[in-house]
Write a structure and sequence with these properties.
A hairpin with a 5-residue loop joins strand 1 and strand 2. Helix 4 runs parallel beside helix 6, helix 8 packs antiparallel against helix 9 and helix 13 packs antiparallel against helix 14. The protein has 440 residues and is mainly α. Strands 5-6-7 form a three-stranded antiparallel β-sheet, with no helix packed on it. The protein has a two-stranded antiparallel sheet with strand order 1-2. It has a single domain, classed as Glycosyltransferase (Alpha/alpha barrel), CATH 1.50.10. The protein is built from 15 helices and seven strands. The protein is globular. InterPro entries: 6-hairpin_glycosidase_sf (IPR008928), 6hp_glycosidase-like_sf (IPR012341), Glyco_hydro_8 (IPR002037).
Length: 440
Amino acid sequence: MSRGGSLPLLRDRGDGARAHRHGGARAEQSADRRRGGVRGRCDLPGRALVAAGAAAATAMRRAERVGVPFGGHSFPYAPGVLRLSGDPEAVDQRVLEHYRLWKSHFVRPRGDGSCAVYAPDAAYPYVAEAQGYGMVISALMAGADPEARDVFDGILRYVLAHPSSGHPDLHAAQQDGAGRDVGGANSATDGDLDIAYGLLLADRQWGGGYRASALRRIDALRETELPAAGGPIKLGDWSSGHFDEVSRTSDWMPGHFRAFRDVTGDLRWGEALDTHLSLVRALQRQYAPDTGLLPDFVVDAGSDPKPAPGRVLESEHDGDHHWNACRDPWRIGADAVVSGDARARAAAGRMGRWMCAATNGDPGRIRCGYRLDGAAYGEGASGAFVAPFGVAAMAGGGGQEWLDALWEWMAASPPEPDRYYAASVQLQAMLVVSHNWWPP
């Protein structure tokens, strides 16, 4: 189905994977790419990841001299945030093991000095969301993986080679196996939010020209995807007509908005932060007072926000807590543990406490899909649904025993090669839970 920029309607495959929706333009000039800090080639998986233990990780941290090395735990989380009961070095080692598998399964060289995160369970093998995840993950793993900057720069090279047709500083959100833009070559908000955030992390880690590239992308996001009159962020630079009033709750990333506000001094990002946290609270109170769960999509977003009444973009579950909104406890919870914002903490805590009670403290009973009233309809369990509640637990969503149980489930659930989405969400949740997440 075409809709003037033309993102295809996507379908949940019904097998625990999630079909994606995306679509993006004019090439950025080679000078821009140089300013973006791209260097070298992405020869992966050429050199093995050296992560044989805490001593090896410490040695690599010394050698690479990054700004915030993985395992340093130097950024203090907000007061009152729960910590895992286990040994921090053992926890870090488990994250390294998951990262090694994630990298071997999904980071693929493209033959032109670039690499990209492969998404076998998405609508197309290369999607913007995956590249954003890859940039954030590789920047956070610096100091433990000597190839982290090569991975980051290889993905950035790929992103710059596929600009959106809607704005040259955004990313075309879908490519086929041959690397051709498909689905209208438009942007997807979540992908560009993470790409910009990843660039800010890279600037903190390695310096160079990453910051200038991040600022251009942040400006493009504000220009095309933040409504001038307020209201939640749009689906992409293609949103217009009916879709101008649709927003995806998993694009409501308060930690990103907070970072963009602080880096740019642009008050629009501060307004976006307040708008989205207020919307979360209102939706929870009106539509999920018992569970706190959020829907995948919100309609009438600028006037009378409410859960989608059925299919508006992806499936009949667009108004349920489905394969998009499953990320919300992680996104909101990460901001809560880093910033200490009482609004984020209350929202994440509400979701987490309900899930702990609904499963009687057993993470294996979390299902892949819920009505907002808590009725489960999905199968389970998947890291995409389970792991985000570990972040929510840190923010007051269920207590110490629940947090430790969620971690044990994650630690015992390695990435599967055909489940990029679950593996990527789980790994990022593990980075938060292990105290290896920090603002740029």
